[in-house]
Predict the structure.
Amino acid sequence: EVELVESGGGLVQPGGSLRLSCAASGFTFSNYAMNWVRQAPGKGLEWVSSLSGTGAKTYYADSVKDRFTISRDNSKNTVDLQLNNLRPDDAAVYYCAKGGIRLSLLDHWGQGTLVTVSP
Amino acid sequence: DIQMTQSPSTLSASVGDRVTISCRASQSINGYLAWYQQKPGRAPNLLIFRSSSLESGVPSRFSGSASGTEFTLTISSLQPDDFATYYCQQYDSLPTFGGGTKVESK
């Protein structure tokens, strides 16, 4: 059974940094792209970043480009999202999601981790 | 970027009703359209992919259809467990989501 468990969320001041992590199990991790999707309080879903199975290709939403960095460790079955220069509008629940038969088909999701950006 | 326009934003219905949610893509997405269900405080859950293919374990009362860039999610007979928010998402390119449809009790 596929399981994704996020960690690393918390309260950070504007301009600060945070590192989110997602531990995966139940599938051959290196065979699948991984994604991060966020949801601001009371709002809809927003794709943030994707990473190919090998880690060679990365993709970012314009809203986070040059501030966030996605990476993975296929030996540990983890995918991380480094959040730098955080802004109040980055506050959200961040979900880790496994890519399916296509990179962007999000077939399994973690429970999410909350990032709060406030002075 | 491909824009996804979902309607209605809110839908009031009763148990047993037939419910239809629409989603329109701003350009061709070659049928790469998924539907997700999200309940409060929970992660989204994949219901349908490739416009009309039912994900394993999803009840057969859920169905999807497509006509060009217009997509529809239908719940044939609404059940108490189906009150939730539904999102469409294109995955022909990097993901974009519709704004969501909240299905609430009438």
